[in-house]
Amino acid sequence: QVQLVESGGGLVQAGGSLRLSCAASGRTFSGRAMGWFRQAPGNTREFVAAISVSGANTYYADSVKGRFTISRDNAKNTVYLQMNSLKPEDTAVYYCAAHDLKFGSSSLREAREYDYWGQGTQVNVSS
Prior knowledge:
seven-stranded mixed sheet
């Protein structure tokens, strides 16, 4: 199994930046695509960003494109989400997730395709 622990959340003013980290344990980390999702109160879980196994391909929700950057360091078993130009609507609990190995090829945008999830980290962006 894969265990994921997010960190780096907090309170930031609109226009500010925050960097989330997701530390993974387990030897299968480098063989999985990884994703970030978020969920605001009263909303469903929403795709934010994803990165392929090698890191060659990245995917972003339109709402964060140009502002957020996903990256991974397989040597450190860590995936990151750099969030710049934050907006109040970015306020949510952010979850790191590992893509299920049975999905060999996908857009990486569907939450149902991920089988391991972190506990989430709260991000609050004030006006």
